[in-house]
Design goal:
heterodimer, A: 787 residues, alpha+beta, Aldehyde Oxidoreductase, domain 4, Aldehyde Oxidoreductase, domain 3, seven-stranded mixed beta sheet, five-stranded mixed beta sheet, 28 strands, B: 155 residues, Ubiquitin-like (UB roll), DNA polymerase, domain 1, 2 domains, 5 strands, 37% helix, globular
Amino acid sequence: MATAAPMIGASIKRKEDGRFITGRGKYTDDINLAGQVHAAFVRSPYGSAKVNGIDASAALAMPGVHAVYTGADLKAAGVNPIPPGWLHAGIQIGDRYPMAVGTARFVGEPVAVVVADSAALARDAADAIVVDYDELPAVTDGPTALSAGAPQVHANATGNVAFNWQLGDADGTDAAIKGAKTVVRQHLINQRLIPNAIEPRACVAHHDSANDELTLYVTSQNPHVHRLIMGAFVLGIPEQRFRVVAPDVGGGFGSKIFIYPEEVVACWVSKAIGKPVKWTATRSESFLSDSHGRVHDTDVEMAFDGNGRIVGLRVNTVANVGAYFTLFAPAVPTYLYGTLLSGQYDIPVIHVKVTAVYTNTVPVDAYRGAGRPEATYALERTLDVAAGQLGVDPAELRRRNFIAPTKFPYQTAVALQYDSGNYEPALDRALTMVNYAQLRKDQAAARAQGRYIGIGLSAYIEACGLAPSHVVGSLGAQAGLYESGTIRVHPTGKVTVLTGSHSHGQGHETTFSQIVAHELGCSVDDVDVVHGDTSKIPFGMGTYGSRSGAVGGSALFLSLQKVKEKGRLIAAHQLEAAAADVDFADGKYFVKGSPSRSKSFGDVALAAYLAHNIPSDMEPGLDSTTFFNPGNFVYPFGTHVAVVEVDADTGHVTVQRYVAVDDFGNVINPMIVDGQLHGGIAQGVAQALWEGGVYDSNGQLLTGSMMNYALPKAEFLPMFETDRTVTPSPVNPLGVKGAGEAGTIASTAAAANAVIDALSPFGITHLDMPLTPATIWGAIQQAKGGK
Amino acid sequence: MAQVQLTVNGRAISRDVEPRTLLVHLLRDALGLTGTHVGCDTSQCGACTVHMDGRGVKSCTVLAMQADGSTVTTIEGLSTDGSHALQRAFKEEHGLQCGFCTPGMIMSAADLLARNANPTEHEIREALEGNLCRCTGYHNIVKAVQTAARTMQNA
């Protein structure tokens, strides 16, 4: 019998696509329950306001309107604030009730809810509710919020400081900077991003009074986390009577991790009125209520010796967290940011200080990359500024500072220990693909003709596969970050996979089937993957931080080993051979040396369930559950190169080429990994060039729709050129890393560096993102005027 | 309430609707055709794209009453089994991830290929400017449309 082609590493076409290409996907808004009513929210129109009173009489008089509830109603009924899931020493938490109680702290904060027979009627009724507000002064910018006399967002957070956090060696860094030959200083704004998964958030909550059971269908990346926090901390519902289902989910990018007020309110109202309650965000509501990302204001000081080697790095960041902490928010600008500031570089001493500050804006939390793009941008943008100051080619400056391959495992100056890495091959491959030497010549020739080509590099590292539970626990996480994976073999040998990971575009139904098919020698079509339902899955921490393959996939791999081992004992028993003499390959157990004495996996599965002829001390059945708790993060890395042309007359940027060389360790499905990388690159380039959330000083979101928040379109982007190096991760049995966020982490700096490189003939060394035509044109005019 | 009569995916339909009802809500809520999605409220995202009298339209920007007397095709009507060249190409080229933009993307691509059987990469990217995808970076969507165009030309 020929050996089957390995399933791990194969670009299998996706199993889930059939329903999506025919319009049969089942997203939350596609779910309608008998007797459901629709919720609409009244939201604060002010950045900061005292809520004096709410008059719902006109709304309640409308036929078809069932009820109106306010923040005070829910608080009085015992609904608790929604807590963050990560704490730091000295953190000041401003309580976030599901709807404002007394004070509204950002435009879009829910103040009241109305439920009615249709969504349109609910909206009409919400508009008929009169709220008596006293508008208060607001503050939306991080540094401004820290200034003397700034409006206070929360009474318990003096000066709006939510926490102070630091990492590294302050004195050592100070000494290194003082003694350095050259110190490069750069101020960087990492602007506000608004995630914009194309599926708006939605929920349908149904309280079944007969059994006192609550079911919530919700756009979630982590339904068990939703259930735990909503059930145990916010609503006080026994977990075993609370089912959370995240069906097909149309993209998350972090924004669907968090527990949102609307979901809490829908659950509570369903019980209060005894009907299913449905809510679907309009896109305008998404802009005003989905947690935003980034929003750092950072000073970087990078110190060099006379040979262009970095001798110290100091980073001082003001992280704007918005009006409240959501689930991961305290971790994002700290342990997911400061710990990454060594990048791919051998930096002997680093100090990072972060001041988290409350403002009157939508809460800021994890958005694709979550802290790591901010760290990469700070490092890679400053390195390019340094390359200009030192007169060293940007590629050479990076190469000179790479951690040598002989130094792994490498202990950084900011807590992480990199398990593995070899950075020059990825840089070399990227430079070869882009034909770097020729490109620099072409660039010079183009400049002579008045054309402005720019080449931008970004050598990145990320820590993902979140994460070792004991480590995150010691750092303030209020949960462990393992994952569960169950392999349930049926008597016919078919397999059901139950995974705590959640797919909202990642293709788990395919990749997890591949792991099973690879290990059991079956077809991917013999495997079904179940995810996103707390009534079916033992437990799950969900999908974010590029963790599904490394953590969720590894849990399944380990369960498969247990199943295979039990099967081996059954086969040995039936073949009358010692277990040690029985091997498994291509779906068959066989006696070593006499392959004709064999049992198929299906035969063994049936035997396990018949239990007529299995070892006497063995339980019947064939399934296994593993909770995999990784020993370390995984560390993808790579080099990306962007090539752009700037039209100096208009400031318009054309992305001509984009080359990405990444190391994701072993790859389960290259097609899917490339696809995730493409999407990540698009999001990161979009931060560099187009996207930016803007508030005015009163707290109004000026970029509140897709008309004025510039999401990338097909015509903005080129085809991407990708390649990989392969350094398997030693921390999980699959040797995989994570690929979901790498594109975003790397590409923002590459694209921004390319534009600034293009503008270097004008003497421009830095511009804050997004590098829109207006920004670029203005900078060119200023540069010309200054000459 | 007003009565609208139209043909949807080959079936004659008659429904009473509020005058403000959008075509997308008629399709999703009254007819249960949930393959057509709503991703925005400003006609940017294109997730709601369907064909009306043979042309691609954003069904969130058409009142149900405006569709009175028209012939509408949704993703469910393109083929019932995913056998349309575009559907097959989106799977083959991995032109979708979360799948939410996909029905609208396919309907827009079908509209393009009906007008231009052999579009260039640039023409494909321009034609899809009214359809947003947050997952794919468009790379494989463009490849899928190119593949479908080749298949349909050779058919």
